[in-house]
């Protein structure tokens, strides 16, 4: 018998939460609050009680304090991860002990709340956690895994490993830094983390940090108040507010100017933003994902990226392998991309001749999956019938596709190095054609060309067209 252990108090609710805290007041506050949400709640005051209650009951969420009389909340997180890997666990930490919260997230905790507990924050957390759990709901981890896995193609060992990490990271709330060469699928991965996690029903807001002019950054990120500058004719929300409850994806995060890095750090740390011209801060609840092809640690050592922001956004790291290290993924990726192109254009799906497939396998893809996509798009247009031949691909087997930049080139561009090799007239013509096609939408043109926005800008500047 569980002599001395609290009884389950509400057996009618179909979802129940285990509350673990040694302070009776807090236990009562949490229990009352959960009961008001129509949930069942059980309470435990020690680690031993919690373990025993977990053994005898089925819970949908566990909320645990960090300091318990007979141990540590982190032990409970580990215990749950080991024995009930599908049970989300959130930790309650003292205000200011973000490091402990991060340790818990790294161990697999789903989220954390700080004391004093704000009931609004707690409710949001609970709602998210239970959405994650409810069987058959569109937000369940397994459902989303199936739906989105179709988008992230690749069965190589490297991709399989990456998928395991993505699944783990999707379950908690810590910031993730996605590091990989240009065109490796960093944005696809960020979207997948969002869609597999508890925030899936909330917005996913991507922002290209290299594409916002430094003068507008603060108002873009935090919004502004009417009259705060000429042209501010009404209050406007920023990207943080737009992502409220969801995910803010800081793409090309290394491109943030140092002055903005400080402000962003503050917003992430305080979970609050102050719109330009506002007197007070407003709380925001966003999960931060970020990405870059640059080596952030190196930028930190060169004082070009703030170390404190680096630590804050890089709690969890996802290294994305370049395509040349997983060439076995090419047939699957090509089939996926060809099907997508056919759907977009309303055409029948093209296939690859054996010769074209072997040409693809011999290429080293400096522009990664985006380069593969561009090659296939061009080949579809050139192919005489529905089969793409090696000639249609036009791969230069000296290993450099005309439009894809190598990592050295990327670095050179980022350093503002003018010694980059000359750009050919053909390339110039292709770039201008693509810009015309996209009505001079530089971002769309860069994407089609397999270049980053910076690389395109660099080229245009060189030709005096920007
Ligand atoms: N594993 C994958 N499965 C399916 N499609 C992929 C995969 N990886 C990349 N893609 C496709 O390749 C293109 C480039 O991917 P994405 O934009 O995510 O790359 P990126 O790493 O963010 O590139 P950049 O550094 O240039 O911003 C997109 O069209 C994306 O859909
Ligand atoms: Mg990207």
Q: How would you explain this protein's 3D organization?
A:
The protein is an alpha/beta fold and about 475 residues long. It folds into four domains: about 15-135, Rossmann fold (3-Layer(aba) Sandwich), CATH 3.40.50; about 140-320, Rossmann fold (3-Layer(aba) Sandwich), CATH 3.40.50; about 325-395, Helicase, Ruva Protein, domain 3, CATH 1.10.8.60; about 420-460, Arc Repressor Mutant, subunit A. Helices cover about 45% and strands about 15% of the residues. It has helices at about 25-35, 45-55, 75-85, 100-105, 120-135, 140-150, 155-170, 185-195, 215-220, 240, 260-270, 295-300, 305-315, 330-345, 355-360, 370-380, 390-395, 405-415, 425-435, 440-450, 455-460; strands at about 15-20, 40-45, 60-65, 65-70, 70, 90-95, 110-115, 175-180, 205-210, 245-250, 270-275, 280-285, 285-290, 315-320, 350, 385-390. The strands form five sheets. A five-stranded parallel sheet has the order 2-1-3-6-7, with helices on both faces. A five-stranded parallel sheet has the order 9-10-13-8-14. The protein has a two-stranded antiparallel sheet with strand order 4-5. A hairpin with a 2-residue loop joins strand 4 and strand 5. The model is unreliable at about 1-10, about 130-150 and about 400-420 (pLDDT under 50). The structure holds adenosine-5'-triphosphate and magnesium ion. Adenosine-5'-triphosphate binds near residues 154, 186, 188 and 336.
